[in-house]
């Protein structure tokens, strides 16, 4: 399994490895439940055990890695129950963030939200998964900043980290990306253009409900495939 070579440039080496390994997990280079063996990771990314251990600790704090007794670190494997619980909380918090953005965001933040949405609409067809996720992250960065609530910010960022793999499943599903564009445009219109807090809350909650339905469906399909493979 050939990984991306880590470039030794200005950014700290640990930060580079963290970003590359995070993207490899999100791109399913490592399967859910797969052991992350330090020696193999050192060889893959050409770095020391110390760097790998620091990176794994950070990814564990983000929810992408889980330490299992007698096995060590593995790629986190979310159950359907876990995923549903995360999406329920995410929907409530993003709805509140959207409503607060409509009430509190600056003119600059409103314009920035529109720029992100328009770029996503222009480029999603040719963008790969990493690029789509990066644009979604930028969208949420602006939305959360405009909500001006540090509790929402810290809590929602933690939830987003844990559902990153599920977001990947959702964004890769057939037909989901165009739906995402329409939903983000609705959030932008309600929150940034009209400043309608109630409509912004509903648009954000609808987006999360639809993303959850798609991700849970894709998760179930992947689990069925794994079961069929094991049975064969």
From TrEMBL:
The keyword Glycoprotein does not apply. Residues 11-78 form the HTH gntR-type domain. The keyword Transcription regulation applies. This is GntR family transcriptional regulator. Keywords: DNA-binding, Transcription, Transcription regulation. It comes from Amycolatopsis tucumanensis. Gene3D superfamilies: GntR ligand-binding domain-like, Winged helix-like DNA-binding domain superfamily/Winged helix DNA-binding domain.
